[in-house]
Amino acid sequence: MTGGVKKHYSGSGSLADRIAGALRAKGLEPSSLTPADFEAVDEFHFRGRAATLELASLMQLTAASKVLDIGAGLGGVARTLAETAGCHVTGIDLTPELCAAAAEISGWLGMSDQTEFVQGDATSLPFADGAFDAAITAHAAMNIPRKDRMYAEARRVLRPGGSFVAYDILQGEGGAMLYPAPWAAEPSISHLATPQEMRTLLQGAGFTLLKTIDSTHDSLRWLEQRTASGGTAEAVPVTAKLLFGTSYREMVQNQLRALRERRMLTCSFLCAA
Fold first, then answer.
1. What is the pLDDT of residues 166-180, one digit of tens each?
2. 159 with 187: CB under 8 angstroms?
């Protein structure tokens, strides 16, 4: 399974170089930008930076917080948390190319001291028990079949009372998901949980579930607005286009239909360790 996931997100060549080239083609110098400017590059979960800020407000972070971002991708969530709370964030991702690009982007933005990125498996985290004050995962668990291990590991590396937020795409009641999707070109690497399964998994891992937020309607409105100018507007994330090429247009249309028909949901779960 992990080989297929790595291949899906790897693309070809240096991802950081391709991102820099795409930005410069638009007249933008990467090192002159801010973390917020990178939203279309590194926060390609539903509702982007706005969703990250909402989740951050639930986590009640301080400058002293040590935070783990599970499935960090290009590091957008990690940098937003580090920038807004002043905390240190460690990101972990299965795909080496994403980790390398995340570290390079942090370097462009002068955030290497506040963020670090480690290649590793969410179901076997390379960190000590109780190493973090808070943890977050955004749109990562869709590729992980052993979610019980993922959430058990998240619980293990959190100190008692630490906060955990899971923001993911879930299986809805409207029928089977449509593929290709941004996280899976075909169903074999897609593993969507239902909301009830998520509650059972999180509680089974030892978390206390404090709050559940269904943001599906907001995600649909967001995606409709971003594609209103005809299929996939320029606002569609640069990185998604670089990774998936022309197939991204079909992915967007499949997501629009799946959200409208509630085949897929976007939900957040706030928990206490």
1. 999 999 999 999 999
2. no
Nearest residue to 136 via CA among 98, 87, 185: 87
What are the C-alpha distances in Å from 83 to residues 34, 75, 111, 205, 214? 10, 12, 8, 30, 26
How many CB atoms sit inside 10 A of residue 243's CB?
22
Q: With the C-alpha atoms ordered 161, 162, 163, 169, is the resulting torsion angle positive or negative?
A: negative
The residues facing 137 across adjacent strands are 70, 166
Determine the distance from the C-alpha atom of residue 170 to the mean position of all C-alpha atoms in its chain, rounded to a whole number: 13
> pTM for the full model?
0.89
Q: What range does the domain containing 47 cover?
A: 2-272
Residues 6+ apart with CB under 8 A from 127: 68, 90, 157
CATH of the domain at 59: 3.40.50.150
- DSSP H helical segments within 142-266, as ranges? 147-156, 195-204, 216-226, 238-244, 247-260
* CA distances for 183 relative to 7, 18, 140, 178, angstroms: 11, 20, 8, 11
Number of folded domains that form the chain: 1
Q: Is residue 6 very low, low, confident or very high in pLDDT (cuts 50, 70, 90)?
A: very low
